[in-house]
Amino acid sequence: MTTTAPPQRQATIRGWVSASGRAIAPHFPLETFIARNPLAGYEDLDHEEAMRRIAEEHGVLLTFDEHRFRQLYAQGRISHDDLVAALRFTVREARTADPVVVDGLLTTVCEVLLQDLLVSPPLPDAASSLTTPAGAISPRVQARVDDLTSRWLAVVLGSPSWSAPVRGEGMWSSWRRLAAVDATLPRRVRSGIRTSPAEPAGAIDAALAHWGLEGEQAQEFIRAHVLAQPGWSALVRHRAATSTGVDLTSLVAIRATLERLLLPANAAPPAPARTTAPMTERVDAVAAALSADATRPGVQTALGRILSLADGYTRLTVWQEAYERGAARPLTPPAVPVLREMSPKARPLAQAVFCIDTRSESFRRHLETAGDVETLGFAGFFAVPISFRPADGAPEVASCPVLLTPRVAITESSVERGAIDGWRRRRTAAAERGHAAHALKESPVAPYAFAEASGWLLGAAMLARTLAPIAWHKVRHAIERTKPTTHVDADVVFSLDERVLYAETALRMMGLVDGFAPIVLLAGHGASVANNPFASSLQCGACGGHEGEPNARAAAMIFNDPATRTGLAARGILIPDDTLFVAAQMDTVTDEVTLLEPWAVPATHEKAVLDLADRLATARAENAVDRSAALPGAPRGVERAGALEDTVRRSVDWAESYPEWGLVGNAAFIVGPRAITAGMDLGRRAFLHSYDAAADPDGSGLETILTAPMIVAQWINAQYGISTTAPDRFGAGPKPLHNVVGTVGVLSGYGGDLRIGLPWQSVGVGVGPRHEPVRLQVFVQAPLGRVNEIVQSSDIVRTLVMNRWITLRAREHDAARWMRFGRYGWENEVGSLLQERLGAPAEHEEDRKKENRS
Amino acid sequence: MHCIAGIVLHMLPLAPLTTAALVAAVVVAFLPTPARRTPGSLASWLVIPAAAVAAIGTVDAIAHGHDVAGASLVLLVTALTAVVQLYAARNLRGDPRSRAFFALSSLAATGTVASIAAQDLLLLAAGWTIATASTIALIRSGGAHPQTRLATRRAAVALLLGDGALWTAVALVVATTGSPSFAGLGELRGTPAVAVGVLVTVAAIARAGSFPLHGWLSATAATSTPVSALLHAGFVNGGALLLLRFAPVPSFLGPWMLGLAGGVTMLVATVAMLTRPDVKGRLVQSTAAQMGFMLVACAMGAFGVALFHVMGHALFKASLFLGAGSALERDLSLRAAAPPSRSRAGAVVGGTVVLLAAAGAAVATGALTHPASVLLLFVVATAVVAGTALGAGAASVGARVAWIGGVALAAIGYIAIVFPAAEALAPETMSDALPSVFAVALFAGACALALIARGTGRVADRLFAFAFSWGRPPLPAPARRASAPASATIGPFEYGRL
Fold it and tell me: Model-level pTM greater than 0.90?
């Protein structure tokens, strides 16, 4: 075992490991939760083909299973028409109306396949066919390997108080050193670890040699080990990108070495048995449904030939398509010309720009109802890719989508030197007391008297926090010294050219190039929650899982800068002198919109800002009523004040497991002027990005929208979807069982795999899912040729659209029909979606009402 | 029913009311609940009055000077149950097992209150076993996770072993003295006395999750947060009261077993805690160490200190468990603050001032004459660590002086007021208490481990490897998937079969 593998062989093995790593996307540590598709590595496959592969390798489905779909069909959530349309859309052969004769009965391909969807035995539970030798020989040893590896990864990645012995050298070397003296391992295993190769790739080679695996089989072995605990592998992939010593090869080496040593020396894995669902059962079921006799000659062949057009995964694809048609309908902007006023509109009080986040949708609706305010949607980082250094001296955070690298660092500072120093010192002192308490808790001699003494204080705090969370929060808030006024230095760190460029890009992207109101509110968003390790999953996704505050401030500063405005005027965008950009932040738990730099509002705009504040307060109250109806445990007969107080409690209550619903239900991404969705209740299900083709002559704005915000929306959509359909593998499980590891993630229980994805409390209540897992439905109002060009020129967009990971629809103008991007270009949808929309608006209304009720 | 009536009749004046309210809470947990409330959560509306009655009982006990220890423990248990139930009403929304949680937590409180207030051995043991059984079921109410099931099995084995030992001890006492009353305990002599002492010790060790019955406690990290809070605050410390009640039994072996079990657990668990990256794993090891200290205090005959420790720790740990979700936030804020600049001189001054103050107080108040005064070593050590850490900080000199002064005052206050008061809480003495040198050796051992855990090298490696794998429950083997078609319900497997 001590012989080292030649470097070339080691390189081959490393190559195999990184190829296997593509099956699980890197997981961001929980401190900056980034919603994304954990299975993004499969996006270069057609969605249906990916489903097959994912079921094989991960043992999960990307959609609901057929039981659930049939249940939804029985409940009427999937309509019969949609199912037929989806079938005809997915299986080309089903479009023919030519009759087929089966056992003397006149039927069609479509009818046979429809019965197949409704009555055939469903796909058996997806079970991964990838197994490690331990999995095939002894599940007990497999669990032991999982156990030993996962606790090692936890200690390496989770930073315990005493971590010196595991630091310094690579993960594999320190494991070899420490596992060799672990008395709980059998002596034989320990000596085997001591004599294992010094290089992780060499250790994998030793395991491959032990099991006699080569080529394809060797790769499968490695993939099985990488995917045995996908959570840890995903975190290791993320960590490997930024630090040395932690990599997937070491992880596989540890697993393979333990497995080789813990299994009896002479054990050999049995050959895997693969079973496929027999066709005869399907034929029998369908024949019975058509009231044909399956025993008659020819029936088997005739039906079998038709049924072979669609296997179990095709059926799921059809169901999913049907499900999505139903979901998309109430979210589709109607194809009717938007009324254009003949006389120029009066200048509104304000224009308010919110993040594209689905939670903005209902707030915008209520703000518009409150009167005289236009709203727009734009990615919440306001196109300023920055990192932020807060005034309290905390480490810099990247505040932009993870797709981008921050261009510059913005620093928060203040001219009130005495006040800011005092404030900072207080915070440092508090942190030091935290360190001191930590030292007491973790010293072998000190924790006893410390627990006795501090227990009485903590006990009193526990009582207060549980009985009166709001009062407790107010008291704490009153004790804290208020933060002095600060400013950010965006106008210093960006050059004039950059400022003008960012400003112009942003304005053209959202179609705001003229008709500026006296106030333009730039509202980022954040979520205030207590005692919630998943807090960052509720923050702004466009700001890398942080609050949008720094970006809103930086953007407002740039737009108010006179030099920038002069530069903009030269490029044809004239911002009136009396227009003031105001930075704000919306709290998505309480719906409160706070002005971030109230001290920067000049007296000339005082009245306008106060008027706007009144409308924001009205919108907040309405939106709280709207939202809290859907929250578990909301007070009954939601009166306004009650709803508002309930949302405030949720934001500070350490016991609350449902602070808000986050982006649950997200399904559509609508790019176009607000006018096309104005007045529609989209139920917080749509990302709304403002866009006006006329303001973006060269189409570069649209290109940015489709290649950046849309991709982030797709990540979020895929994350919510997979956390709903596969909560056990790609969701984090119920919150009360969470056990936080360092700052990287949670375990469910005392050990095992790191739970990646969203907690169940983000996507469902009890055993019922609340999120509807539909692929992102993208609606773009822009010239089709322009959309076409972008799809063709951007790999990432083309891949998603062509492989059916998103559905892209576009139209030229308000009154045009929506065209769907299919494999062969723009097509009218097979089925009657468009006719229905035009011909039966009443039905559409009803759908929407139904949607609201549910 | 007869049993409950019996319990009620034999209790402290106000205890029957408390018990009745708790029993009613168990029933109420099964009544239909308004749709917006978590099923079963109405139980807390009866546990709150139970706690109020217990509070009156405590005041009454202090006024009349009878069994203050018992009365305050009853208050502690009912109040904690009420708070945790209120927390769970918001935390367990949607949990299919919430009803079980509320019913069983009320039942566990009933059992504990009954065992504390009991005036004879049979009722004490009955209450003890009600608490054990309902706690095992509570752990199970965490869900269908295989780890939760394993935790339930482990808890059942270890705890029922302890209960078996207790019932055997009770049977032995009744057989020897002919009566289940506490009064007969002091009359036990010879082999029966030693046997009773040993058996009761086993029961206390099992409850406290101490070595060698420590395996179950770490597995309970796989149950829900509210259950953990109750378990670590109100359940594991039951041994203190049990040992207090059995203190009159002259058993030389019992204290040694207690001291060794508690001492080993203290030493190992504190180091194991340092190697745990997960918040609940740390809290579990911390509890094990704290309960080890409680057992050692009992072995030294310092029941008052043990009881006071139990109460402070219960509040401490319940609060930390309920706030376990903030671990990430706390880590981030500690990391975010500028690294404290270490002032060596400040550390030395801070440590010395506090040490002198505490030592002075110990000499001046005559606390050193008390047999259990050696435990003050741990108090002084805490004060010195605190003084050193605060002295080394970057805060202004004035602030540091104020903080160090505060710590010194707290140490003096503890030694001058709390220590004697704690001793008065349970004036019982034990005939065969361990010698002071035992605690000194334990203290020295803890200091040595602290030193090793700061360094690196072969010894540190071995200690790390040992502590790292200490008390690790195994991962359950993955269940073979049933080939039967899945049901149409969706949801996490933790919510699985009921």
Answer: yes
